[in-house]
Amino acid sequence: MSGVGEFELIARYFERAGHPLPTQVVLGIGDDCALLQPTPGMQLAISSDMLVSGRHFFADVDPATLGHKALAVNLSDLAACGATPLGFTLALSLPSANPAWLQAFSQGLFALADRHHCPLVGGDTTQGPLNLCITVFGETPPGQALLRSGARAGDDLWVSGTLGDAALALDALLSHTALPPATLATARQRLEQPTPRVALGQALRGIASAAADVSDGLLGDLGHILKRSGVGAELDASTAMHLIAACAHSASASGHFDPQSNLDATVLRHVLSGGDDYELVFTAPAGQRDQVVQAGHATATPVTRIGRITTGAGVRVLAADGTPLQGAWTSFDHFKA
Ligand code: ADP
Ligand code: MG
Questions:
Q1: Nearest CA to ligand 1 atom 20
Q2: Chain segment 150-206, per-residue pLDDT in tens
Q3: Three-state SS for 2?
Q4: Cβ partners under 8 Å of residue 224, min gap 6
Q5: Is 197 helix (H, G, I), strand (E, B) or coil?
Q6: Ligand 1 atom with minimal separation from the 32 CA
Q7: C-alpha span between 255 and 248 (Å, rounded)
Q8: How many angstroms separate the alpha carbon of residue 39 from the centre of ligand 2?
Q9: Spatial CB neighbours of 68, under 8 Å, sequence gap ≥ 6
Q10: Residue whose CA lies nearest to ligand 1 atom number 1
Q11: Residues within 5 Å of ion ligand 2 by Cβ?
């Protein structure tokens, strides 16, 4: 690498001498392998996510928010499985060793890592196009990981937090939508610094029947659960409308959802099909309603019941009077095209 050498770079920006490690991390950065010792009897949960410049983020994005997001999207996968984080590795390809960039990147990365007691335990560093790949390791009691395959007809359909703001911000940054500055700031925070729902995921062990994180849009990620579980779902559009936060003072706050209105249709499209929110979509038996609400309270995470699991396949989006809505926003694949 230009500027500092590879090993100096690792030592300066990624090794944190004297930083306490959880007992499950026997050996961190510095040897040929890291050594993990999961809590006896626990299963390892492992997930990787790659972020490519120009595809998953703008090349000139604030490096601190990039550090946050690279880890957040991985922790979100652990959250979706109900796993407890243990540590992560970072494979980094960088055009040059820019000290200011590396300093900000590692600061954003470690701020989130520390919040989740999830240390960086190793990785790889090379010169090349800007590209990051993180692998996270977590643990969960055997048989208690939240899977996509467990939803059953009659289960409630739930979502955490709010949806659609990340897509709204992306639209605005790509100049497709004009937003008031304060609204853009709120939405942009959600796009660039998502909150992985790690505590909620763990609290839902033994309560939720299936879960996934919303990285590609609610309809798309719910679709994965439905397919794996062999079921369908009904989704209440008027409830979903209230999930968007940045827009709350506009369409959805009016309390009257009009699917024919352009603004309402735009909000609903962002809620249903927007990606990058990193909330959890999950199902739970109707008899677990109080426990789901309790898990939300215990982890200070809003949870909203937005529909139900049915027999059959696919998602039906329903208006308040129960009639199915037809619109481009009801189809995930349509928006991908
Ligand atoms: P090897 O050649 O044996 O794969 P390296 O020389 O690439 O090891 O790396 C030396 C040490 O630094 C290893 O412990 C490796 O895990 C760690 N490391 C390399 N790059 C990073 C990185 N970007 N973040 C954290 N640790 C890293
Ligand atoms: Mg080696």
A1: 124
A2: 999 999 999 999 998 898 888 888 887 777 888 888 889 999 999 999 999 999 999
A3: coil
A4: 148, 212
A5: coil
A6: 3
A7: 10
A8: 26
A9: 108, 109, 111, 112, 192, 193
A10: 32
A11: 32
Residues 108, 70: contact at Cβ < 8 Å?
no
Q: Are 126 and 95 in contact (CB under 8 A)?
A: no
The model's pLDDT over 230-254, given as tens digits with 9 standing for 90+, comes to 999 999 988 888 887 765 545 444 4
Asked if residue 37 lies in contact with residue 26, where contact means CB atoms within 8 angstroms, the answer is yes
CB of 87 closer than 6 A to ligand 1?
no
Domains of the chain with bracketed CATH: 6-140 (3.30.1330.10), 156-318 (3.90.650.10)
Give the separation between CA 5 and CA 99, rounded to whole angstroms: 12
Query: Residue 96, CB half-sphere, CA atoms under 13 Å: how many?
Result: 6
- 248 in helix, strand or coil? coil
The helix/strand/coil state of 122 is strand
Instruction: Give residue 32 CA to ligand 2 midpoint distance, Å.
Output: 4
Q: Whose CA is nearest to atom 22 of ligand 1?
A: 123
Say which residue the tokens 């927007």 belong to: 274
8 Å CB contact between 160 and 280:
yes
> Are the C-beta atoms of 208 and 292 separated by less than 8 Å?
yes
Q: Dmax over Cα atoms in the chain, in whole Å?
A: 65
Residues 307, 235 contacting (CB under 8 angstroms) = yes
Which ligand gives the minimal distance to the CA of 33?
Answer: 1
Residue 70, beta-bridge partner list? none
Ligand nearest the Cα of residue 31 is: 1
Of the candidate ranges 88-97, 222-231, 253-262, the one whose mean pLDDT is the lowest: 253-262
Distance (angstroms) between ligand 2 centre and the Cα of 112 equals: 28
Global pTM?
Answer: 0.92
State residue 32 phi and psi, 5-degree precision. -70, -30
Q: Are 82 and 201 in contact (CB under 8 A)?
A: yes
